[in-house]
Specification:
This protein is an all-alpha fold and 97 residues long. It is built from one helix and no strands. The mean pLDDT is 86.
């Protein structure tokens, strides 16, 4: 066999091998593309579920905050009433003396 013929055969085999490798890479890239699309859909669903869970928690937090503020206001009103009663009782004592 001539070296030039051998070289042509080796180059032809390498070209065929590169064609198969290129085809396989295209198939892998298509698979990666579908996997990424599925992952994106999954992450969108997870995001929607997270938002659906977070909204009631935020609402509950607001309700607890409003309740706490109401209790503080009730405490202030209670102190004011107690101060008025003390002032009235002091006035009554001063009038009795």
């Amino acid at each position: 066999m001539d070296t030039q013929t051998l070289l042509v055969i080796v180059i032809a085999l390498l070209a065929v091998n590169l064609i198969f490798v290129g085809f396989y890479i295209v198939l892998i890239l298509k698979e990666v593309r579908t996997s990424i699309t599925k992952m994106n859909t999954f992450l969108d669903t997870v995001n929607e579920v997270g938002d659906a869970v977070a909204d009631p928690i935020v609402g509950a937090s607001g309700a607890v905050s409003a309740f706490t503020q109401g209790m503080k206001t009730f405490g202030i009103i209670k102190k004011l009433i107690a101060n008025k009663k003390r002032v009235k009782s002091d006035e009554v004592r001063e009038e009795e003396e």
